[in-house]
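name: query_chain
kind: protein
chains: 1
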Amino acid sequence: MNINELERFLETLTLSEKHRAFKGFEVDLKGDLNPTRLLNEIFWTKQEWLNIEEFFERYVRQCYPSLKQAFPKEVAQLGVKFGSHLAARLYRTQIGFLTEYHCAMLCEEVFAPEGFLVHRSPDLDRLGVDVQLVREKERYNLHIFVDSPRAWKFRREKRLEKSSNQEQGTHIDFPYQVRSGCIHSLRLLSNGFGVYRREYIEHLKCKILSGECLGIQAETVDCKRGLIFKRNIQAETRMNGK
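structure:
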């Protein structure tokens, strides 16, 4: 599947606001219960193209018995509304996953001429890496999230807790903006699904090829100037042997 075929598939998805009201099942789903693991298997490995409802049915068929065993209290508290809360959780996860998937495919198109390979995997996901760019000894780990104060706060906490940035290589925060008019604004498909713009990926490529982001961490994204990098003090300390 190429990027145009992927976008045609994304345009067939039915997006809904109804899931916003259901946020009662936000537990940490690990191992076989992690929906991202199943999404990687279905889309990235097997190239099966399931819509929102089909993925929900597949997940429930494979994981519901284990969910009830792992979270009996939460399932009981939500009662008859548990299905709606689970559907909302899986909806948000699948939309986010497909946004990352599109970004990875776009990176393949933009970076392949420069000799880069693009990787995604459950192992990288567990380390908080959404997309990895590799060329010989160079390795760049992209962290994808919405450009909002809440998301940045969560990202910085992950770095401080050392639960992120464990993978070798340079780590780059690569957020997207939902409002229009910025270099990192999503491009909306006909059904409203937001995808990364090629211009933003090209902007990242220029930063990488210039050497500007080697050993440093993107701290913010300016609406007009794009990625702004700040020296990664921890990385410098390790390099200097302090």
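note: The chain is about 45% helix and 15% strand.
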